[in-house]
Structure formats: C-alpha cells, structure tokens
C-alpha cells in the first residue's frame, strides 16, 4: 500500500515585489491543522487584488507575517483532516473558506479556520464557491454599510411605494463590482454601473439599469445617463477624488469606499466630525461565517451568479496572478487544482 502523501505542490514567494515571476513552484510539507482549523484538499482558489498588494508590500510591515508565503486566501476544497476542537465538519465535506491573512491557497492542500469555513452544496461549483469569500462578501458589506439590509427584491423594509433608491457601483465589471450590481438589484435598488466600453452590455446583463463608460467625459464625472443623483455609491474603483463624487450625490448620501487613499480617509474623518450629510465611509472586509453561508445559499438558489473571467491550473497560477495584477478582469480569476496540467 502506498504511504500517505506528506508533501504537496505549491507556489510561494520569498520577498516583497517581483509580481508573477517571483511566485515559485515548490514541493513542501502538507500543513497540519491546528486547534479549530480544518485541512482542505484544494479544488479551487480565487485571486483577489489584496493577494498581490500584500506581495507588493502595500501592507508592510504588517503583512505578510513571514516569508516564504503561499498566497491566496479564498479557498474551495474537501475536508481531509480536522484540528482538535472541530466538531461541525467531517472528512469528505465539500466546503469554501477564507484564510486571511495566512493565505495558503495556491497549493494542493491548505488549512483554514473552521470558524470561517462553510458547507458548499452541489449546486455551487468549487470554482464558483472559491470566488465568494472575499469579493461577494465585500460587495454585501458595502451595501449593508450604505444602509441596505434586505435582499429579497422588495427594495427595503419600508420602501414599498417609495421610489427606488439610486445606487452607483464603480468598477462594476470586476470581482467585487459584478456581485455588487446583482446584490443591489436583490435589494430592489436602481443601479448605475461604471465599467469600460467593452463591458457595458455585461453589466446591463447583470441587472444594471444604466451603464456608464468610465473613459468618457460623463463617465469620468460619474454622471448617470438619466441625470439621477446617487443615494449611495458602492465604490470599487480606485483614485476618485471627493470633488468628483460631491456634485453627483443626493443631499443625503454615502460613498462606501473599499480602496480609500489618505485624502479619502482625511475627508471621511472631517465629514464625520462635522456631521456632513454626504459622507465617505472606508470599508475593510471583516469576514463573517453567516454572510458566507448566505452567499452560498443565494448562489445555490440561482439568485447570485459568479462570472469567471479565466481559469488556470495550479501549474499556470503565475498567469492567473499576472492577469489579476493587470486589473482588467471581467468577473473573477480562478486557479483550479484538479484542472488539466
Ligand atoms: N477593503 C476591502 O476589504 C477590499 C475587499 C475586496 C476588494 N478590495 C479592493 O477593491 C478593488 C476592486 O477589487 P476587484 O476584485 O473587484 O478588482 P478587479 O476584479 O481586479 O477589477 C477589475 C475591473 O475593474 C474595472 N475598472 C478598473 N478601473 C475602473 C474605473 N476607474 N472605473 C470603472 N471600472 C474600472 C476594470 O475594467 P477595464 O478592464 O475596462 O479597465 C476591470 O473589469 C481592488 O482595489 C481591491 O483591492 C478591497
């Protein structure tokens, strides 16, 4: 009988910078799950900009905690071993998980905290499931931070006869944005979406009521084609100064920004202390198990679709990394461990 496998294929980097070329294929020991962790035989992982931003040193000196690092925190796989204290999973369970900031996803096996691991039903593919933990959860938390908490299509608890609130989603063709458009529609909102010219039809297909090419003069000013002002902005693009937002916002409005720079953070602070009605709110994802379960559930029900830009086997994960760094994905970028090598 063959001895149990002790090592696995993985990609890791040893220093800040270097992009895809710094990711090296290695054979390393399979990690052991510690207390309250599960070991997954990986089926798929999805890359997020935060993965290569950490490599670039944008969160230095906090992350990564150590080199070498096997990156990528959005995981999909099968439970093969339980750490002590884990009682809610068993070997063979298909799950999705988030392992942030430890990563580990670009490998044949990865450990994840049981507290951020949820069951994946057969209606949700491993690749789709791997896309949800960061991107879809961020979109959901942005909408919640903007005051929308009901996603049953009714338009909110009190808004039965009221006009639909108008929401702008920037970078609506990206990983976060394409979920945000769909979740905003589930919340019963009127949605204006910004994207490049090639994706105008794509974002309308996701449900956007109006689409705006960000490279046109109107797009640069975020002016909706109908001239409607925004009650909220789910801001997923980078580098938009407050002076662009201010004229297109309704009298009371919030911009939920997942990529705030220093100026945005300073503005946000000033607006808060002056009780401004138009406000920028920075948001950093705080993963929550119940939200991951909800996202899996609405996906299984066919209410939330994951669009996969491109899929790569582990042997070509550097290409996936480079593709994400280019910043032009339509939907999500996935690495599949069982794929053709
Ligand atoms: N704070 C947090 O917790 C958190 C969590 C998740 C993500 N994020 C951040 O959110 C951002 C978006 O993440 P993502 O995963 O969605 O990225 P992504 O998938 O790489 O986004 C790529 C898409 O954005 C579009 N795009 C780029 N600039 C645009 C602009 N100015 N206006 C309209 N569309 C634009 C691109 O269109 P073209 O190809 O046509 O240019 C492309 O389709 C990243 O900076 C990420 O780091 C933050």
UniProtKB/TrEMBL annotation:
Source domain of life: Eukaryota
Gene3D superfamilies, per the entry: Medium-chain alcohol dehydrogenases, catalytic domain (3.90.180.10), NAD(P)-binding Rossmann-like Domain (3.40.50.720)
Short name of any one Pfam family annotated for the protein: ADH_zinc_N_2
SMART domains documented for this protein: PKS_ER
MF (Gene Ontology): oxidoreductase activity
InterPro entries per the UniProt record, alphabetical: ADH-like_N, Chloroplast_QOR, ER, GroES-like_sf, NAD(P)-bd_dom_sf
Residues annotated as transmembrane: none
Domain Enoyl reductase (ER) span(s) in chain numbering: 18-335
Protein name: Enoyl reductase (ER) domain-containing protein
């Amino acid at each position: 009988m063959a001895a149990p496998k002790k090592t696995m294929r993985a990609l890791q980097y040893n220093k800040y910078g270097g992009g895809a070329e710094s990711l090296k294929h290695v054979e390393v020991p399979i990690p052991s799950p510690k207390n309250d962790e599960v070991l997954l035989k990986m089926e798929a992982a999805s890359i997020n900009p935060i993965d290569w931003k950490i490599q670039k040193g944008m969160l230095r000196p906090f992350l990564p905690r150590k080199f070498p690092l096997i990156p990528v925190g959005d995981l999909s796989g099968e439970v093969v071993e339980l750490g002590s204290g884990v009682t809610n999973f068993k070997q063979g369970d298909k799950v999705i998980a988030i392992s942030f900031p430890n990563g580990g996803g670009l490998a044949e096996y990865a450990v994840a905290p049981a507290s951020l691991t949820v069951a994946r039903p057969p209606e949700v593919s491993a690749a789709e499931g791997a896309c949800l933990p960061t991107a879809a959860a961020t979109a959901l938390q942005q909408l919640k931070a903007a005051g929308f908490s009901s996603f049953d299509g009714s338009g909110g608890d009190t808004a039965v006869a009221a006009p639909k609130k108008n929401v702008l989603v920037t970078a609506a063709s990206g990983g976060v944005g394409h979920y945000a458009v769909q979740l905003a529609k589930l919340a019963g909102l009127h949605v204006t979406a910004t994207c490049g010219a090639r994706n105008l039809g794509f974002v309308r297909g996701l449900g956007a009521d109006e689409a705006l090419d960000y490279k046109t003069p109107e797009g640069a000013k975020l002016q909706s084609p109908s001239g409607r002002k925004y009650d909220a902005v789910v801001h997923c693009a980078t580098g938009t100064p407050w002076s662009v937002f201010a004229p297109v916002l309704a009298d009371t409005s919030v911009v939920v920004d997942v990529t705030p720079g220093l100026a945005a953070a300073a503005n946000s602070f000033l607006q808060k202390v002056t009780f401004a009605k138009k406000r920028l709110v920075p948001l950093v994802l705080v993963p929550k198990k119940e939200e991951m379960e909800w996202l899996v559930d609405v996906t299984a029900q066919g209410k939330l679709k994951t669009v996969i830009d491109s899929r790569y086997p582990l042997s070509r994960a550097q290409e996936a990394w480079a593709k994400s760094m280019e910043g032009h994905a339509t939907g999500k970028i996935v690495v599949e461990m069982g794929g053709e090598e």
